[in-house]
Design brief:
The protein is an all-alpha fold. 70% of the residues lie in helices and 0% in strands.
């Protein structure tokens, strides 16, 4: 079990760091588009869609890494006033909610992505660029699969006690009461 968790964490971390490199072409593309618009009064026709694709892919595919690193938004008002066992139970419940929501999104997004692939769907923004977007539709189910896997691994960590939640790592005297 410990080996599976360790391998999963390593894969998600590596994938997240690779996906974060999408920021570099995004920065280049934005600077290039702004310079072309400012200097020549002629922004490239592909600027809007490419920005959408790069940022959307980075945001969605990086979500599992964000979940692994616990860098997401979390409402922890209850965690400060309950004991360690209740904290663990609440964290497991939170992971179950994440897992349920993401699995529903996965279930809904697969047929949409498949139909888009079959039709070779193009952009609906009706710009002269008009790229194919069917491949972009697959980012959602792939991201949902990654996030659901990470939520499952987080639950395993909490159930087996391999990783303590942040509030459980503090001693009783250090707990903040808000």
């Amino acid at each position: 079990m410990k080996k599976i968790i360790c391998v999963s964490d390593t894969l998600i971390k590596t994938f997240g760091k690779v996906i974060s490199l999408l920021m570099l072409p995004l920065i280049f593309q934005i600077i290039y588009g702004a310079l072309m618009s400012y200097l020549y009064r002629a922004p490239p026709i592909w600027t809007f869609e490419v920005t959408l694709f790069l940022y959307g892919s980075m945001f969605m595919l990086g979500a599992a890494y964000c979940h692994l690193e616990k860098k997401h938004v979390a409402v922890d008002a209850l965690l400060h006033i309950v004991g360690p066992k209740a904290v663990r139970r609440l964290n497991i419940f939170s992971e179950l909610v994440v897992l349920a929501v993401v699995l529903v999104m996965f279930y809904i997004s697969i047929p949409v992505a498949y139909r888009s692939f079959i039709r070779r769907e193009r952009s609906t923004f009706q710009t002269p660029f008009n790229p194919q977007v069917w491949w972009f539709r697959w980012v959602i189910p792939i991201s949902c699969a990654l996030i659901s896997w990470q939520a499952f691994i987080n639950m395993l960590k909490l159930i087996t006690g391999q990783e303590l939640a942040p509030d459980e790592q503090k001693g009783e005297g250090e707990r903040n009461v808000a």
